[in-house]
Amino acid sequence: MGLDGYVMRWQLTPDGAAIRTPGSDLMPVRWQGRAAMLKVARSAEEVRGHDLMVWLDGQGAAQVFRHEDEALLLERLEPTPSLTDWALAGQDDAATRVLCGAAAGVHVARGQAWPELPGLPRWFRSLEAAQGRGEGFARAWATAQRLLADQRDVRPLHGDLHHGNVLRSPERGWLVIDPKGLIGERTFDFANMLCNPAPDHALRPGRLARQASLIAREAGLDRARLLAWVGAYAGLSAAWHLEDSQEDQARQSLAISALAHSLL
């Protein structure tokens, strides 16, 4: 069932134009007088993210109002202020602190059983397949193997924490949206922050070293292990780019991976 079907089924009122992303269809709506966002997933990966959002139950995340099969009705958050804008306008530290706070909301211990989500070894299959594509991929895969064989502080993860996936509620503060939904080491969830909000920004001289130190302090992480996860994750991102025939983006991700490894 598509957007229009769920608008009728859940008695929603459209409140803006529909939005199509690579994995989902979205529409701003009104539900029982509230501003909400209807999201209908078109991939199994997006559906897994829905399962994590339901499990989070609004703690550190946008509140889920309704959930059925591939559809999710969410609390609508504000697009401004934007953490991407903050970072690119010289407020990188402030944006990073917000991201760490949002991660803490996701990672806090909960009493209920974990949702059924894939583990990190499955997530890294594309990097394993790309290990023969050059020294950068081989180094990233070797680092990933070492980390995956000795995961620490394992728990449900957002899986895609970056500047565009943390938005603000006027009433409840900064909250996460659009998780991938994974099970794995907590430190992994911080790696993508350091590859964002844009590759050229991530590669600015001194930026990775400074922000890695800040995240390690804010989140109580081992800085060297965080940088290792960045090296592995950026290699994985490069492998995904190659799968999509995005060679320039793959080179940028490999450059981030190499930079992270150089700081170890």
What does this protein look like?
The chain has about 260 residues and is α+β, with helices and mostly antiparallel strands. It folds into two domains: about 5-75, Phosphorylase Kinase, domain 1 (2-Layer Sandwich), CATH 3.30.200; about 85-260, Aminoglycoside phosphotransferase (APH), C-terminal lobe (Aminoglycoside 3'-phosphotransferase, Chain: A, domain 2, Alpha-Beta Complex). It is about 45% helix and about 15% strand. The protein is built from eleven helices and ten strands. The strands form three sheets. Strands 1, 2, 3, 4, 5 and 6 form a six-stranded antiparallel sheet that branches. Strands 7-10 form a two-stranded antiparallel sheet. It has a two-stranded antiparallel sheet with strand order 8-9. β3 (about 25-30) and β4 form a beta hairpin. α4 (about 90-105) packs parallel to α9 (about 205-220). The radius of gyration is 18 Å and the shape is globular. The mean pLDDT is about 95.
